Amino acid sequence: MSRRALPNVLLTGTPGTGKSTTCREVSRHTGLEHVCIGDVARDGQLYDGYDDELECPILDEDRVIDELEERLGEGGKIVDYHSAEFFPERWFNAVFVLRTDNTLLYQRLEQRGYAERKLTNNIECEIFGSILEEARESYSEDIVYELQSNTPEDLEQNVDHIVHWIERWKHQL
Ligand code: DAT
To answer: Is the pTM value of this prediction over 0.85?
Structure first.
């Protein structure tokens, strides 16, 4: 397989850890296209029922993959989603997992108006490090990076870190 001109990056983490904010900034600095899986699913109505426990629609993962296969094949995408396991491993050159302190995450999700059960589920997900574990199980460990996302300074550093990673990748041709 020929090398892509630009890498694909997955930015994942529990809801509220800062994925979309970070993706927007990385996209602005690098020109990588921000692909938000939530928006792709909503635009194409790529759902398969409703999860009462998590209070959100269930993604039709196969249809999401079909929908994105060609675009991801081009490279140059930064994908934003709160799960890491169902994407084809070959899609990504790096996987960044954002982590947030429980108290701060609780405040962010409360501000979003999440109901108690949804809040608790997401906080537990973060406490157990579920998404980091999922990412490490789904991809080669040497492409999975954990980043703390607690403060605006962290946000700035994370954007810098990912932008530099992309620049280095481009120059390793
Ligand atoms: P996600 O896309 O993971 O659900 P988001 O980007 O929408 O998260 O961020 C949730 C809220 O938290 C939003 O108001 C921006 C804020 N935020 C994100 N990262 C942050 C950070 N590192 N420090 C402080 N606030 C942050």
So the answer is: yes
